[in-house]
Design a protein that fits this description.
single chain, alpha+beta, Umud Fragment, subunit A, eight-stranded mixed beta sheet, 10 strands, Raf1_C, Raf1_N, Raf1_HTH
């Protein structure tokens, strides 16, 4: 153990004996040059006064380095495992290139050799020159091998007896198309591909349909399909393609293909409805445009407005209307206050009872005419409105409680399962409902934060 010595101050000759007694436990002072060299030595511990190495010594806290197993060196860094299978690790470079050139074994067995060569400094062009495998095929083999390895995860419970289906030369092309899906979707899509014996193009369309399905939730009929089912995602994609077809015959053909692959009952009923309408149109029968499942049309039967920031403040006339939530039910809507008296000159309004929630809206004509019995229903999600163009945003539905008789052209508010809903009069008439809770006058959408206009710079 290294002991640090401290330089001793110069003493008078007469005090030599006294200094000797005081420093008897310390080594003698060293020359100046040696002390300078010793100052650069790092000490692993410092001996403090209290003994000469016995039990009384006190040391600074010290943690020993971790010990390696006997016969091995301590290595804090562990390199990543070799990408090569065990049967290829003992081969030299010439032998590895020979395996790739002669395609020895199954494709997923020699595919890791391509990644290993790339790590050793080979480029796709040099690998192609040595093995004859093009750069495109190299990428396909490597990616397909990674997709196949992901199917071996025990959490996915992918049937092992289905893996040999991808061992043929066409297996890489099939698995390569699943690269953009997550692990669960890959396993489901692989099962579907094996069950229906899909070709690479079909697998690509299936993967694209599964990837895009969550983004199409605002389209008509989306809720009827199950996103966890590859077959339903595929059927919904064909349903969308049928709507884009110009020729009616092409639309019918796409819907028939969707009907062959659809899986759930709700999705099958939705495809059959579209197919029936398309066949009627192909036969020359009259079909109401925009009509979808359950009377859902592309265009609403009432005025839908989007508020602008500051519109209420700039309006010459405003209305103060009571607000109820969609979860309050018809009883709360009927108990909302009604206007009893209005002072047009001073803008004073009297109601028959107290109320907590109010909404201030511009004095639009249809609303002003029914202001005495008007009420505002707050919907948390605009997609509950019975038309296809509704978006996911909170909306206010202004309705008149004095108009309850159902006609086919109107839009009405009624209660279903304790919740206020908006339905078309045509659907209510088909269900035999002659009276509703209120008739919708106008639907108000919230202002948008972004500016939809085009600036002068963009025109230039």
């Amino acid at each position: 153990m290294l002991s640090l010595s401290h330089p001793q101050p110069q003493r008078q000759p007469g005090a030599a004996s006294t200094a000797l007694r005081r420093t008897s436990r310390w080594p003698a002072a060293t020359p100046v040059s040696r002390r300078r060299r010793a100052s650069h030595i790092a000490a692993s511990a410092i001996l403090l006064p209290g003994g000469g190495g016995g039990p009384g010594d006190r040391k600074l806290p010290f943690t020993p380095p971790p010990m390696a197993p006997p016969g091995q060196l301590y290595q804090p860094y562990h390199p990543p495992p070799s990408p090569l299978p065990a049967n290829f690790r003992n081969l030299d470079l010439t032998q590895r290139l020979e395996v790739l050139r002669d395609r020895m074994g199954l494709w997923h067995e020699y595919a890791p050799l391509i990644s290993a060569l790339a790590r050793d400094g080979f480029t796709p062009s040099s690998i192609e020159e040595a093995t004859g495998i093009s750069g495109v095929e190299q990428n396909c083999l490597v990616v397909a091998s990674q997709v196949r390895d992901s199917l071996l995860d025990e959490k996915l419970a992918f049937p092992p007896d289905l893996l040999p289906y991808f061992d043929s030369l066409g297996g890489p092309d099939l698995l390569y198309e699943l690269r953009f899906l997550n692990a669960r979707q890959r396993a489901d899509a692989a099962r579907h591909a094996v069950a229906h014996k899909l070709e690479p193009r079909g697998v690509r369309d299936l993967a694209r349909a599964m990837k895009e399905f969550p983004r199409r939730r605002l389209e008509d009929g989306w809720a009827a399909f199950d996103g966890a089912s590859p077959a339903d995602c595929f059927a919904f994609a064909r349903l969308r393609q049928s709507r884009e077809a110009i020729d009616v015959a092409d639309r019918v053909a796409e819907l028939e293909r969707a009907l062959k692959v659809v899986e759930t009952d709700a999705a099958r009923a939705r495809v059959e409805l579209e197919l029936e309408r398309a066949r009627k149109k192909a036969a020359g029968e009259e079909v109401e445009e925009g009509e979808g499942e359950g009377g859902t049309a592309a265009r609403p039967g009432v005025t839908v407005v989007r508020l602008q920031y500051g519109e209420v403040a700039d309006a010459s006339t405003v209305l103060l209307l009571p607000v109820v939530r969609e979860t309050d039910g018809v009883a709360a809507m009927e108990s909302a206050p009604r206007r009893t008296k209005t002072d047009a000159d001073l803008g004073l309004v009297e109601v028959d009872k107290a109320w907590a929630r109010w909404a201030v809206v511009p004095g639009w004509g249809p609303v002003a005419e029914a202001a005495d019995d008007a009420v505002v229903i707050e919907l948390a999600d605009g997609r509950r409105l019975p038309w296809r163009t509704a978006e996911e945003e909170p909306v206010l539905v202004i309705a008149s409680r004095s108009q309850k008789e159902v006609v086919e052209q109107g839009i009405y508010v009624l209660e279903k399962e304790g919740r206020l809903v908006v339905e078309r009069g045509r659907k209510l008439a088909q269900e035999g409902i002659a009276a509703a809770a209120a008739q919708v006058l106008i639907v108000v959408r919230p202002p948008r934060d972004e500016d939809d206009g085009i600036s002068d710079e963009e025109w230039d």
